[in-house]
Amino acid sequence: MGGGSRDDISSLVILRPACAFFAAYALTVAAPGDFARVRVPLVLLTLLALWMAIQLIPLPPGLWAALPGRAVIAETDRLIGLGDVWRPISLSPSKTVNSLASLVVPAAALLLYAVQSDAQRRKLFALFVTFAAASALLGIAQMGTGGQGPLYLYRETNSGTPVGLFANRNHNAVFIATTLLIAAYLFAEYRRLTRRGDRSVAPAAIGFVFVLVMVTLFINGSRAGLLVGALALGMGTALYIWLRRMEPKDGHTRPMGLWTGYLPIALVLLIAVAGGLALFSEASSFDRLVKLSLGEELRVQILPQVAAMANDNWVFGTGFGAFEHAYRSYEASEWLRGTYVNNAHDDWLQWIIEGGLPAMLILLAFVLWLGSRCVAHWRVRYGEAARTGMVLTAAGVLVLLLVASLLDYPLRVPSMMVYAMLMVALIADPPEPQTKLSRREAGRDRDRTR
């Protein structure tokens, strides 16, 4: 549930009401001050919902016809004798209503995070890595059944490829690739905690997930997934080394040596790459990745039209979710075929096309706030290295998702919305490291039970 971006997936009938229920639950049980740290993301999400609602307000015919890209439709109305018709900014109101309704999913995630204890929040990274392992294993099992059958969870899907818990193989690849960075943080955290007698995080499990994800990425053959995976490996290695160097050199710690630090990382990486290449060389994804020119891909072919749409609609937008309908008036005749284009495959451009200037301002405000929070945590890194490491991990995952959005639309998938929103929440209000808890967390839990 929540693994597909289409608006006609039947499970949405269950998912969205369930999220509304969980959001109401969070509002009911919240203690004073719970939402203070996530206030800015909540406000920005509310502003986005408000702009979507404004795009649905019918406008006077003269004002509507003056909007960019509406003159052709207004002239068509005149020629067929429709007369004056009040229309909203959105070129597809039903799609914009769907986009507005979809915001209940990330909103519920943000509200639920705010009412959790630090102990529960600390489990999020391990939970995401567990989901990545499950999705990777399911993807391998899907390939083992011949690329079709009941292991595929969605009717409209990339049959014959390892989509895992998703409907689209690219989204599966991007998700599991980002968890390589989380796995690096968890491994560093394991090393910190084991010196204090806490062995709650198993390094063998983390290593298994690492190898599993790498092998699945090679089998998948997604360009976006491989790019994100390569970036995640580099970021994860840098994060691990930084966290190890930030550990206090007291009686409980030892400097990281060859056998205890770098060599295990190199061995796991070598095994993962070797296994992935062995499987990759036999997979059809190898031909797709290496032999197929990028210029032959539809997403590259339509880029001039998409850029023209962004240039024409950057002020007010076409309406969220309306890209598919707006694109038809820009589509080149030589690209007409039995299939259709439902997304730009570049979510940065599609954000401009659908949301216009107000959406860009909301995004700018979000980026500035996010940057300020990361800088604030970085300034106290010497006293709270583990907490800062968690923030850097969450910020890194967001960066990876935004990079993937240049090539695809992962953040239009409900489960990926939740994933990204929880990363935002972790940056806004990260939990205390385990060694600093107890009294604060116990007091917080007592406040909620009153």
Description:
There is one protein chain. The protein is mainly α. The chain has helices at 12-29, 39-54, 61-65, 71-79, 93-102, 104-114, 118-121, 124-144, 169-194, 203-220, 223-246, 258-280, 284-291, 298-301, 303-313, 323-327, 347-379, 385-404, 414-428, 439-449. The longest helix has 33 residues, at 347-379. Mean pLDDT is 82; it is low at 251-263 and 436-450. 65% of the residues lie in helices and 0% in strands. It has one domain (10-247, 256-448). The chain has 20 helices and no strands.
Task: Chart the SSEs and their pairings.
Elements lengths: L11 H18 L9 H16 L6 H5 L5 H9 L13 H10 L1 H11 L3 H4 L2 H21 L24 H26 L8 H18 L2 H24 L11 H23 L3 H8 L6 H4 L1 H11 L9 H5 L19 H33 L5 H20 L9 H15 L10 H11 L1
Helix pairs in contact: 1-6, 2-17, 6-19, 8-9, 8-10, 9-10, 9-11, 9-18, 10-12, 11-18, 15-17, 17-18, 18-19
Question: How would a textbook summarize the main sheet?
Answer: none
State the end-to-end distance: 35 Å
Strand content: under 5%
Domain count: the total is 1
Number of strands: 0
Helix segment tally = 20
Give the mean pLDDT: 82
Global structural class: mainly alpha
Overall morphology: globular
Uncertain runs are: 251-263, 436-450
Radius of gyration: 24 Å
- Please estimate the helix content: 55-70%
Q: What is the H/E order?
A: HHHHHHHHHHHHHHHHHHHH
A few lines on this structure:
This protein is an all-alpha fold. Helix content is 65%, strand content 0%.
Features:
20 helices, globular, mainly alpha, single chain, disordered C terminus, 65% helix, 450 residues
